[in-house]
Amino acid sequence: MRKGLLFLSACAVFLTALIGLPGAATAQELRVRFTNPLCREYVYPAPLPTQSGQLVKAKPKDIFCTRADLPFNLARPDGIYAEITRVLQEPGVARVTFATMTYSHRELTAQLCVLEKRGVQVRLILDGGADKKSAEELIKCGVEVTPVQWSGHLHHNKFILVDYLPQTGRAASLVFSSANFSNPGLTINHEMWGFYRPLQPSLVVEQHRCLAEGLIALPTGGQPLAKAFNECRTRVARQIQRPEPLQFFAIPFDSKKLVDILTSQLRSSKIAKMTSNRFSFPAILAAVSLRPAGSPALQAVFDDDLFWMGVRPEPALDIEARQEAGGGAFGSDPRRIRELEALGAQVRFAETSAGAAQKMHSKYTIFDRLVVGGSGNYTASGMTQNFENIYVFNDPFVHQSFLRHFEALWKGSTQRGMMPKANIEPK
């Protein structure tokens, strides 16, 4: 009870302070970026036969990357790590709250420890089943780490909430992603990242505060968390009513609303272009089956794990893979993709390096005007059960950013018939 009261008090204090900030009523700053790794070409020792009998000489450049490519991508001045560094080092940062499933990033840890020593409050929210060793250095330097342990609900949120000192006059800002805070997630994975720096208090940002404070105060979840979160965001919504280029859907609390939007768009939109690390959600299959005759085919890019698991299922799977498949057998994913193809969808696979823990990890779908995307995979768990931060974007510039990324990813990904017959990773 005491933690719940502290949570409500914290939200009220921040909201009261924010409402008086100056700024244009609808001026916003939202940029969507992608890791877009730059990697050398990896050539096979000898050409490999493909599923269709042709020969392939190399893995797709800038799609397949190894850990040898990690240092270059980490050091890129236009890279995601550099962008996050600029956010953290801005003058007047007072508090930084990270939410992620897992955390393992040495360079980021060093930065956060420096911030903590300077008097910036740093907080980390993790899944309760994640390996805590990666966060030990943060704990040693004073970072507050909260493991979320609501049974049956994987903490799969991925965002950073940044608060500034009152004298700066700045509204809180938000970084959100499909990526965990790991070295591959910021460099060689294929990931979506959003940087939202509103000039005025933002309902979307304050909804993230409601969620973060709720998870910290009530990490075992359940009805107390749901009640506290909903009361907080209802109060915020009464006081911040401005147009924004995105809406926030907090899964599992907003599952029905999000699934209704996603399936409605899949049925009616001419454009439908999808990326996901995992796939097994029956509602998507049902919606695709109802697309009008003559509609352009759904295009989808998945990680090549889902191709290889269909060729040679393996029983040993990590917890994320099992839960992301909806709590069932991981082998269901390849079968669902076959069903998607049977409905006329065009599917390609991004050939990534399992040896480097590299993933095609973006999760979004582009429609005629809207984009739906965020941390959640298109699985029953990702859409209805896990803690996920998912967004509906309604902005023409953001829409174009997603389209450009998808077209490049589609061009670099591999049709089923051109996938190699052997799963060999060239050095």
Concise structural overview:
The protein has 427 residues and is of the alpha/beta class. The protein has helices spanning 2-19, 70-75, 80-88, 106-117, 136-140, 183-186, 203-217, 222-239, 255-268, 282-289, 305-311, 319-324, 332-342, 380-385, 396-412; strands at 30-34, 43-49, 55-58, 93-99, 103-104, 121-127, 144-148, 159-164, 173-177, 181-182, 192-196, 246-251, 273-276, 299-303, 346-350, 364-366, 371-374, 388-393, 414-415.
Q: Main traits of this protein?
A:
disordered N terminus, 2 domains, 15 helices, eight-stranded mixed sheet, Endonuclease, Chain A, 427 residues, seven-stranded mixed sheet, globular, alpha/beta
Structure overview:
This protein is α/β, with parallel strands linked by helices and 427 residues long. It has two domains: 2-37 and 68-245, Endonuclease Chain A (Endonuclease, Chain A, 2-Layer Sandwich), CATH 3.30.870; 255-418, Endonuclease Chain A (Endonuclease, Chain A, 2-Layer Sandwich), CATH 3.30.870. The chain contains 15 helices and 19 strands. It has helices at residues 2-19, 70-75, 80-88, 106-117, 136-140, 183-186, 203-217, 222-239, 255-268, 282-289, 305-311, 319-324, 332-342, 380-385, 396-412, and strands spanning 30-34, 43-49, 55-58, 93-99, 103-104, 121-127, 144-148, 159-164, 173-177, 181-182, 192-196, 246-251, 273-276, 299-303, 346-350, 364-366, 371-374, 388-393, 414-415. The strands form four sheets. The protein has an eight-stranded mixed sheet, sandwiched between helices. A seven-stranded mixed sheet has the order 1-11-9-8-4-6-7, sandwiched between helices. The termini are far apart. The relative contact order is 0.17. Residues 1-6, 12-27, 316-320 and 323-331 have low confidence and may be disordered.
